[in-house]
Amino acid sequence: MYTKLEGIAKVAKERPKEQFTALAHLVNKQMLMFCHAEMEMNKAAGIDKITKEQYELALNENLESLITRMKRQAYRPQPVRRVYIDKVGTNKKRPLGIPAYEDKLVQSAVSKIINSIYEQEFLDCSFGFRPNRGCHDALAALDKILERRPINYIVDADIRGFFDNVDHQWMMKFIRHRIKDTALNQLIARFLKAGVMEAGIRYDTPQGTPQGGVISPILANIYLHYVIDLWFEKKVRKQCRGAAYMVRYADDSVFCFENKDEAEQFYQMFIQRLKEFKLEVAEEKTKIIPFGKSADKDDNNRKSGTFDFLGFTHYYGKGRSGTKRVKRKTSKKKLKASISRFTAWAKQNMHEKLDILLGKLNRKLIGHYRYYGISDNITCLKKMRHVIKHVLYRCLNRRSQRKSYTWERYNNYLQHQPIAVPHVYVNIFKLRTDIGYIV
Asked: What are phi and psi of 213, to 5 degrees?
């Protein structure tokens, strides 16, 4: 299976105009068996209410039935079960789609095939949902641009409800640039049109791709590759007199410019570009920000601002040597949301024995530190640990009518089993040396 995918990837890379016409046969029992093995246990079930463990009880029979239905074009994806999760930092809810288990398998297989082709197409400025690329790589690339190029302005762009507004016709046009396999394209179209089930009512999906679906990330990347990445690289940058760069992680993008007039011109062009593809700029979240080392020295006494990207607030400050450089800290919205989540969790679990409670808390904290533990952000992590220490103290003293712990006794206990201490897990300066994006 991997050999075939590697062969497809090699052809896609060596022959960029090659159109693939025979791919659907790769969605076979071997591929689906492998996708099943990759699926995680204890995940939420779709409308079929079937989990991995249940599907596995008759795995061979289930896969044989699925392959048979696919061969005679009788396979139809089931509607996606829609649930809502809290949107970090707000009182709003984010819709999340949970496909039926069988549909997850087919989506996973199709995603692997599409990805083997389009991974050769995607540009270096794209980081979201790609192999061996993550949030920290995107942050390192952005840091490298801001530090090594004459950037003075940032366009912090936000697309309103991207996953809910992807145009299906444009989506299929983009896919047909490289994939001419009718059976595979029909399968992708059926996933897009499968509909959603909410509170027992089925709704059609004339547009959008459910956020949370296995196939959604690769489809989103394909859509934005043609709508934003290629357009910026082939047209916008060539028209600019000064430096111009972009970094995109899924639908979150940051555009960097040397000249103010070019940043302003791009902003207007960006609005029109998205309209062409049935998308809309969230104007309340999209803005032009003065940002650069020389921000305080120009004729207009412009002050360098700040902007948020991937959960971090970027700002200019002085390093240890006294020189001005880009720094990052946890954004206020994310910090507040993280503390709220930890507080709610502590209240729900305060009945646990203290050693068990601390063990679980520390595992959660270390997971938080591994993402936010980036160069220059240790102060925010220590602040969060300090707040959580006090939250835990209050929770422990609410477990009975009598005060269980004095502050002294609580601190003595923490000396033997301390709350996890934050560390810098990601050295942004080391990581950016491995990023080969900027030219």
From this structure: -70, 150
Three-state secondary-structure class, residue 371: helix
d(CA 350, CA 365): 16
Residue 180 CA to residue 88 CA, distance in Å, equals 40
Phi, psi angles (nearest 5°) of residue 145: -65, -45
Give the residue ranges of the chain where pLDDT is below 50: 297-299, 301
Q: For residue 102, what is the enclosing H or E element?
A: helix 101-118
Helix boundaries (H) for 250-353: 260-276, 332-348
Q: CA–CA separation, 47 vs 81, rounded Å?
A: 6
* Geometric angle at alpha carbon 263, from 257 and 266, rounded to 5°: 120
Eight-class DSSP state of 398: T
Provide the sign of the torsion angle of the four alpha carbons 178, 181, 182, 184, taken in this order: negative
pTM to 2 decimals? Answer: 0.91
Structure token pair of residue 278: 């049935």
Q: What is the DSSP letter of 435?
A: -
Residue type, 372: Y
- C-alpha dihedral sign at 128, 130, 131, 137: negative
**Amino acid type, 318:** K
Report the distance separating Cα 30 and Cα 36, nearest Å. Answer: 10
Q: Residue 194: what residue type?
A: A
Candidates 129, 143, 149, 152; CA nearest to 433 is 143
Q: Which of 262, 249, 314, 241 is nearest to 153 (CA)?
A: 262
For 230, the token pair is 């290629």
Burial class (CB in 10 A: 0-12, 13-18, 19+), 412: exposed
Count how many Cα atoms sit within 13 Å of the Cα of residue 290 in the half-sphere of its side chain.
Answer: 12
Residue 201: burial class (beta carbons within 10 Å; 0-12, 13-18, 19+):
exposed
User: By C-alpha distance, which of 249, 151, 164, 237 is closest to 206?
Assistant: 164
Longest dimension (CA), the chain: 74
The span from the CA of 390 to the CA of 372, in Å, is 21
Q: Are 230 and 183 in contact (CB under 8 A)?
A: no
